[in-house]
Structure formats: C-alpha cells, structure tokens
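Teaching assistant here, posting this on the class forum so everyone can see the example we discussed in section. The complex has three components, and the goal was to see what a joint structure prediction looks like when all of them are supplied at once.
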Amino acid sequence: MSTNRWFATGNFYTTYREEQRIFKTHVDRLFFILFLMGLFAWPLFIDASNRNMLVINNILIAVVAVYGLNLVTGFAGLISIGHAAFVGIGAYTLAGTARTIGDSHVLITHCWPLMILVSGVVGAAFGAFVGLPAMRLKHLYLAIATLSFQMIFTWAIQFMTFFNQGQMIAVGRVFWIHGQVGRSDHYRFWYYVILVTAVICGLAVRNLLRTRYGRCLVAVRDNDRAADAMGMHPGLTKVYAFALAGFFAGIAGALHTYMFRGAGFESFTLHHSIIYLAMAIVGGLGTLPGSLLGPVAIQTLELQMEHLSEWAGSFLPASMNLATALRPLGFGLVIVLFLMFEPRGMANWWRICRSYFKLWPFRY
Amino acid sequence: MTYFFQLVVSGVVVGSIYALSALGFVLIYKSSRVLNIAHGQIIAGGAFIVYALTVWAGVPIILSFLASMVITFFLAMSVERVFLRRLIGEPIISVIMVTIGLMSIIDGVIYFTPFGSMNYSFPEFLPSTPISMGGVSISWTQLVGVLITFILIGAFSWFFKRSTIGVSMRAVSDDQLASMSVGISVPKVFGLAWAMAGLSAAAAGGIIGNITGLNFETLRAFGITVFPVVILGGLDSIIGAVVAGIIMGLIQQFAAGYLDGNWGLNGTADVLPYIILLVILLFKPHGLFGTHEIERV
Amino acid sequence: MKRKYHRLWIVAMAVGLALAFMAPVQAAETYQLGLSLAITGPTSDAGNPYSKGAEDYIRFVNETKVLGDAKVDCPIRDDMYETAVTKRNFEDFLDQEMVLFLSYATGANQALAQDFNEVKIPVIPASMDKSLVGMSEYIFLPIASYSHQYVGVAEYVAKNHKGGGVPKVAAFIHPSAFGRAPLEDFKAAVAAGLKLDLVEVVEHGKDLDNSALLQRLQSKGVQYVLCQTVQSPVATLLNDAQRLGMTAASFGEAGKITFMGAHYTGGNDLISLAGSAAEGYYWTTAYHVTSEKGPWTDWQLDMAKKYERDDKTANSHNYACGMMAAQVAVEAIRRTREAGQEVTSATLYETLNQMNGDKAFESLAAVGPVTYGPGDHMGVDTVQLYVVKDGAFQSEGEPFKPEFIK
C-alpha cells in the first residue's frame, strides 16, 4: 500500500486484489457516494412535475433492463434481439398474477418487493430456456433465435385469453408504511423504489464481474475454445448469461407494470427490443457506465427530437409533413453519426474523461 | 384435392416473393456479415419510387419499375459509402446498430413524403382475370411477380458464378484478408453488395406493392418477415433463400389452410415460421444451405 | 484536437439534458386541451389525417373567435402508438392544466383509464372500442362503438338476405383485441336472436395470398364476410376475391361472397388500396363521407382548402373524425362558458353528460346528433351503411340504430 489511495496518476497495482477493487481511489468512491446522495436527495429540494418524474423513472427502468442486455450482449457477446420479450415476461408474471388473484390482492399491493423478485426469477427461467439454443448456436444465428422468441411472445400474449389478449391488465396501487401510495406520490414513490433497485442491480453486476462467474462470461466471449480449455463450460455459461439477462429484464418488467399500473403488449414489441439494443450500444457494450449512459442518452434524444419537431411545426407550413418526419429522421441521424464517429459508445468518452482527470492538471 | 393444389400454388407464389425479399438481405450478409435491419424500409422505398414515377411522373410502369431498381441501386450504394464505409473493421454490432439508425432515417424520409401516412395502389396494368387451370388459379400480378423473382435470382446466380466481379465478391465473403492480398477492393465489394441488395429490394417492393397496395406499415413489415426465411436457407446462401422462401410460403399457406379455424387456433401463419425457425436452429443451425461455420460449443 | 471535440460534445449533452426537462410556458386566457396520437408508426395512416382534422378545427375556432376572446390551445403530440409515450404526454398535458384530453388508441386508453378516473378528466378517444366506456366513466366515445357498427352490418345482412335459409357468414378479424372485441358482441347478438350462421372466424396474418381461404369459405357456403380490421388486409382479400371471381356483383348474390366491414376497414383509403376490387364493399361508420355531397362535406373540403391540406387528407373520413372530436370538445367548452361556469374538467364533464334531449349536439360531421348522458357515453347512436359504387362510397339506406346490441 505504498500508493496514494486518494489520487492515482497511473496503475500501480501490486496485487490482484488491488486490481479488482470496485473503486480505484478514495476520490472515486467519494464521487460515487456524492452522486448517489444527489440522486436520492434531489427530489426533496426540486419539485419535478409528474411528467418529468415519469421520464426519469422510465430511464431508470431502462437502466435495469439494459444491465441485463449488457451482460448477455456486452459481456458474454451474445446478441439478443428479444430483450423486450424478457421484460414482457416479467411484466406479465405480475399482470398474470394480478389477473388470477385480483389486482388488489395483498400479495400484489403489500408484498410488491417479493412480486418484483418473483418476476425476476420467472424472467431468468425463460431466459435460460431461450438461451438453450446458445449451446449450439453462435453469432447472428443466435440473435435470430432471440428474435423468434420475441415474435412468439407477442403472438402468445395476443392470442391467450389468460393475458387478456394483449389488452391492458391493471394492477392495484401498492402500500407503503404510511398507507396506500396515491396518485400524488406515485411517481416519486416509484422513483425511489426503482432507484434503489437500479443501484442494487448495478452493484450486483459490478460485483458479479469480479467473481469467477462474471469473468467466465468475458472469457467465453473473447475465446470460447480457450475458455473451454481453462475448464469452463461455454455452453452452460451462455445459458447462464441469458438467465441473468432474463432476471434483470424481469425485474425491469415488474417495475414497469407497477409504475404504469398495468401491462399491455404494446410496450414489449420488437421495436422496444431494438431500442434496448440501441441503448446498450450507444452507451457502450461491455461497460457498466454504458448501461447508465445509454438509456439516458436515447431517451433524452427522443425527447429532444419531440421538442425539435414541435418547435419546427410552429413555423413550418402545416400542409407538409416536415415536423412529423423530423423526429425519426433526427433520431436516426444522431445515432448513425454518433456511431460513425464513436463506435464504442459513450462509455468511451467516460473512459477518456477519467483518464484525462487522472493526470490533471498535468498533461503527460 | 383442388384445395390442396391451390394451397401449393399460393404457397409457391408467396414463397417466391419472400425469396426475393430475402435476397437483398442475404447479399449484404454474405459480403459483409452485417444484419441489415433497415431492409424493410428499403423495400417500402422501392415500391414508393415505382409509384411516384408511374403515377406522378407518368412513366410507363415497366420503365418505372426498372428505373426504381436503378435508383435504389445507387441510393443503397451511396448509403454504404456515406454511413458504413467508415465502420469497416469496427465491431459488427456497431454496424448493425447503424442499420437500426438507418431504419429511423429512412422512416423519417418516407414520413416526409405523402407515402408515410397515405395509402395508394398501383394502376392496373395487367388483365384482372386470373389464369385458372382445373380450379387452381393464379393472378397475372402474381405470375409476373414470380417470373421477375426467378429472372432476378437467375441473374444473380449467374453473376456470382460467372462474372469476375461476382467471383471477387464471393472471394471477399470467404476471406477478406486473402482477397485483399490478391487485389480485390473490399470496400468496393461492400458497396456493390449494398447496391444489389437495394436493387432486389426495390423489385420486391414493386411486386408486393402490386399485391397488397401501398401501405407503409405493411411494406416495411417484410423486413422482419424475411428473418425466418434467411435462417432456414442459411444466412449466406442465395439458393437457400429461394428454397427456404418457397418452403416458408408453403408452410404459411398450409397453416392458414388447415390449422386456422380448427382447434381454436388462429393466425398461425404469422407465428409458425418462427416456431419452425427455433426448431431448425436447434437441429440444423446453419440452415439448409448455409456455410458450415458453426461449431458446437 | 480530438479531446476538444469531446468536451464540446459533453457540453452539448448537458444542455440537451437540461432542455429536455423544461416545460413550455403557458399563456393566459386559454383553455388547455391535449391530443396524443400516432402520427408515425402503426395506424399512422389513420392518425395522421385525424391529427390534421383536430389541428385545423382548433385553428378555425381561434381564428373565427368561436369562443369570443378566449382561445383554445391544443398541443398535438406523436406517441407512435406506444402506451408509455401516451402516458408521458398525458402527464405533461396535465402539468399544463389540461381540461379535456383527446386520446387515440384502444390500448393506451385502457392503460390510462384508471388515471382518467382518478384525475376526473373527460376524455374523447379516437378508438371506438366498446370496452372503454365500461372502464372509465370519463371516456366519451364520439360515435357508436365498433361493436355497434359490426352488429349493424350483420343486421343488414339478416334483413336483406334473399334466398332461403339462414345466411352463412364468416368473420375476418384483426389478430388482436381490437379485432376480437366486436366479435363477442356479434356472437351475443346471434344468441339473442339475430338470424345468422357464423361459419368461421378468420384471424388474418400478413397474408400475400388469400386464395385458399376464400375457396374454403366458398366451399362452406359462406356468402358474407364481415371484416373488423384495418384497410390493408381487407384490400388484399378483396383483390384476391376479385381475381377468383368470387366478389358478388350485387348484395347477397348467390354463390358469390359479399364483403362488408366496420369503421377502420373502409373509407377512401380502402379504395386507394384495393382499386376496382373494392366495388360492392359495404361499410358502416357514423361519418359523412366526401363522396356524398352535403353541407358538412362542403365545409370539410373548404376547411381543408383553407389550411392547404392535400386531396387525400381532405377526403379522408379520419380527417372528419379528428375534426369532430375537437368539435365536441370545443362545444363543451362553449356551453360551459355560456352557462357562466368556470371551465374545468369537472364542469366540462357535467356539460358533456347533459348533452342530450334538446341539448344534443348536432355536429354535422356525423349522421346523427351527439348525445351523452350519465349512462350513455356513446355520442352518435346511429350508424350509416355505405357501399362502394363506381369507385366511391355511396350511402345505402338511412342511418339506423343497431337493435341487437346491449
């Protein structure tokens, strides 16, 4: 421990343990704690409107889902184009329960943390099942296996009467210590729940990657034969990566259902799978900060495009579809340009930023 | 029995249209290993160009059909040049993501035109009486569609087998490094692959548009419909796309013809391809004709 | 050099983030509405003209001072047919103190029904799904539900079927709740004594060829196909039927099939898609269509011309649909003001509920007056049957009220 634990101007690891630390320096830890405190504290000082809270909650739910996608696609290298279906599995676990036992049953309204967990577990089970082809498939063939799961999921939900044929299945309002969470507190309450979940999940992912199981994923991604030779089972590892992805997606799905107060199939279509993938890639595959930055960036971009097209609509001739067209056009253009110039995603900026401050104020 | 034969004929017709839609997809994958998510949008774009030329510019439909193919040929080529050329050598997933972005861009462009929100149909240029033989019937539109499909696929097959450029494209898909070392320009091959994909997509769009009418949602859905087809046939096989397309068409028609309405089932034609797809993936992961590059893990 | 760009990007991002959470400032003396619908994405071929109808009518109200000096502000947001986005827009509009919500899709309305009940805000949707009325007492359908229209078509078949026996019908429906819901009411109507024989229910996929389906239906003796879906699949079906020579030349022609359908299966879009194959297609809706000249359609075309809409939009029944939704909203505001009440969600709800008897609202866009009451949240109770003749929808008979539906 000869190095300064507050500032590190380079990598001076002398033991493996040191390299595996979550926080390289105390400053890192301090910033992280401050950031976390900020996240928890700001709603006490700023009175955000319902709509803004909704947007923020949505972003955080996407963060939880993207953790899962990043595990399977980023860390284990298995492209998944069916992530929204896993989220849907979670959502429909909860909704299906609500439909069976009634939407205001104690289990739903009081034991909601349990329900969220159960949804995650069911998501994991489905993840493992869909991951089975991974024992034999690689690359894009696997991607398409996940795509077919997505299609089958949407069809099954729309076909089965049990799931109300894809129509809305409502869940009741939950209870907290002070009683029922009413409309006025709804978004704020769920902000905290989702935030806590996201933080726990984030720490879990970070820690997972320090363990044997996490490194296993990366090893299989980088070279599965070598991993095999090292005594890992690549097939099982892949199945387990899918199960993990399914778990996070399931949790995100349950949170989604609670926050939107019900589940309908429209929120779990192929389009959403693609958006999740976009979030993971724009954020940066195979990085933890990427899972945070991606959802923030994509959702902000979407909102910005909405503002832009609304603003453009205020002076462009109404007879044209310009304002309407501007939204998808701008969205696609920003993503394409971004990836053309930064194919490694926003996490790369984060890395550059950090390495800049590592030496700051000295430049080499 | 007539019912059965009608199902077979319809299946072959629908299947060959699937094959043509899948062709462009396979071309891009074959040369550059990129999954083109924006394929449906290109199909729709091709159909709209045909309509715009025919109805708004007054060009005879056959000419505008050809012109549309030429236009998308160059459009797709420039898309590759502008957006994808920079990404050669970057992770494939980033390139796939770029095609997702492209999808949004093309959506935007189409929403800018009246086609984004309005429905149109081509003027009728073929006799509307069908050709029927012993109760089995096929419309002129469909027949012409099938013919165009087979002509195009034949042309592509010839091109890849015989022409120098075609052979160099195959070389690139086999081994990029080796083909570069013998003087093949890999970026040019990629550009050409995109261009040809654009061309075949426009042809597919023109044919589908003639059958379903021009509705943006319907047309772009074909980008997804081709997935089971290309997997069944093998992602990088043109012959595979044809055979798989026809098999898929037959499966769908038989599903709709014999399953729907019985045992409380309905709409099976839409989901059955994906279920079959999953089974195929488990037992024959490289498809019927795909290169056997997949090893067991 | 490169690093500089990164800093620039980050600053741009931060500004972007800040802007995303800013809400527009609201002006005084205006009544705030909100419209969230699919201008892009699925069903945008209906949503786009609908949004233009609503937009134009609101502009007309503000320009011609229908409400005196007061103005109506109705922001229109594209939700791409996504429930989550609709909810965001709804909350955003609420933050801007919206008094009445114009909504769109069935799914989104179902998802938000609980919120409507809690906020107690009147809602006028574009979806005429019958279940919506049961889910929230704050939802006011402008016209009769899909179920009414569908059963209306069926009743026409039962009444006008020539030749012996019970007419055999098949249902051609969208593979979703939207398609299946009216079917339940249809079955109930048959159980209640409607003399029809439902031979087969077909949920269509993305079919390119329906030959087999049509041949099967014909071999089962089906004479009428009742559609409840969107235009594109119907167009393919009609094309195939024409090709096979199965389309009935006149209503109920023996040995042939007559095609009929409700709300979203018809309109000029169908003719655009199916061309001559659409001849003889029967369609119910509650709107006047521009192929049948009348005071409303003249006005509709004038409006479209005034606001420079293209021909397709001007002649779309969805354009009329959007106008009418805005019309009902503005009318409610006008009446509330006239009664000397403050315009709030609560008073608007009251006003809408009183819109019956001699207070019924003649919107002209529809074939009957809009009547609401505490137990009746379906505006126009009658439906009109149209049939395609010479490439245009022409009215068939008088507006009628379906009897076999509860």
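For the discussion questions: The mean pLDDT of chain A is 87. DSSP finds 15 helices and four strands in chain A. Think about how each of these relates to the inputs above.
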